[in-house]
From TrEMBL:
CDD domains reported for this sequence: Radical_SAM
Keyword vocabulary terms for this entry: Iron, Iron-sulfur, Metal-binding, S-adenosyl-L-methionine
Region annotation Disordered: where it falls in the sequence: 408-429
Protein name: Heme chaperone HemW
NCBIfam families: PRK08208.1
Residue intervals of the Radical SAM core domain: 47-281
Domain of life where this protein originates: Bacteria
The keyword Iron is assigned to this record: yes
UniProt organism field: Parablautia intestinalis
Example of a GO biological process term: porphyrin-containing compound biosynthetic process
GO cellular component: cytoplasm
One Pfam short name: Radical_SAM
Compositionally biased intervals (Basic and acidic residues): 408-427
Amino acid sequence: MENLYVEESYVENPNVDTPYVQYMYSYPHKTAYRPLKGVSLREYAPLLKGAGHGLYLHIPFCETKCGYCNLFSVTGQGSGALDRYLEAVERQCGQYEKLLTPQNTEFSALTIGGGTPLYLTGEQLERVFGLLEAHFHFSREREFVIETAPEQTTEEKLALLKQAGVTRVSMGIQSFSDKELLTLRRRHSAQRAREALKLLKSFEFSCVNLDFIYGIPGQTRESLLKSLQEAIYYDPDEIFLYPLYIKHGVRLEGEGVKPDRNGALRQYQLASRFLKEKGFRQDSMRRFVRNKGEREFSECGFGTSLALGCGGRSYLGGLHFCSPYGVSQKECLAHIKKYEGCRDYTEITHGILLSSEEIKRRFVIRHLLIRPGLPVKEYRMHFGSDVMEDFPVLKSWTEDGYVRKSRKEPEISCGDRKRSEGPDKNNGETYLTLTEKGLAFSDYLGPQLISPQIRGAMKEWEESHGRIYDAVPGEPEKL
Ligand code: SF4
């Protein structure tokens, strides 16, 4: 068994109530989106000119709802409901194709997420792949990512993925302990996860990612390490390690289950060290990558990504849009029904138009939380100002040991390919990089970068729908 010695250096941090405030996977959060009027995709289509864009399809169906899940997904839907949804997706594809053809749009990344995309039948999956190919152009080297769950991972469906050119499969395992899986209200058993993983590996996709959760009530450091040890046996290319959040409206909240906040940071620290000892590179608080099969993040604040389906989010310059945020089955079903009845998918009715100040914040959040970090010169080049002056909190984070300056040439990570394009654009670039302590406290630091306006909009949403986060972050700095 692993040595369970944990350095106490940052575990005890009297100034921080909890390191687990909010996961900042994007900015702004969907709860800050509002109804939009008079916005048409037509005006924004030129942003999708040429190559280098992402296409996302959301499949909002799952067999059962996991206890902690607040993603846009519904359960209990039969094949007829799925067919109806795909008919709407097909209509949306047709309308988007008309807008994109004059732009010669070529997508370099395709992601199908959910929900559980493999909840679709084999026939429906073939239909999806066929219609995406028929309506859109993709680069020859496109990345094709799909999410799956152990119960839906069958030989027949994996063969279809292989045939369709899927490059990366991400599977939610969460734990190899049946007790912990039960606590999470996951449907699969540890044995089913093992079988699915063995099958998945036999198809030799170029990248296999596995998701795990820590901070589960009753989980110990030993059981977490045991799960990770077992995962490594299957030789995954990436592991994402998520702290358990129980937000408002999820099933576990109703059951009175609370995440193990006290144990979580220690579990994280131990698991992070363990994975690095096993040859993984840590790129963010959650992402651990083997040095082989490296993959860059395709979206660092300026990326363009178009979403299909209900619940998927599009990013086109300062316009971010998607269907209204929903957690409950009732809300999600109502949004799906509206999506299926939509006549004009080019009319954008819900989202946000970012101000230049919010675009700066997005740039900082998207870069700082992912190594190699925030490129200081690049920031100045884009915005004409100094990031430390715009965000004085970065100085105090440097003094507090969360952030350090680094001039190290970046390993492949967030947007490196883009950064390395052009005549030595980043030669001598200085990065503001999260330290080990900073990585561990990413979910505490990130929320402090939310602007007062966005925080206000999120608060307003929470007050009308119920609070969705475990804690309220400190006062934001002024830009
Ligand atoms: S966590 Fe994933 S599999 Fe579970 S209900 Fe949510 S979307 Fe479905």
